Amino acid sequence: MANLDPAAAKRRADYAEATVANVAAANAGGTYTAAEQTLVNELKTKLNAVLVELRKAGILAP
Length: 62
What we know:
Blueprint lengths: L5 H11 L17 H23 L6
């Protein structure tokens, strides 16, 4: 169902103008254990995937 509230549509448009950078390409370094490195790197990958989907949906600016 379409949102009929013009104010809500304006707020969504304002949010879509916001830019959010991807998480840095660097990986977790040697000060972490292997398990911690894996966790940090997986979280970074998943967060970047979420950002891609939000951009595709028009919620974030490309």
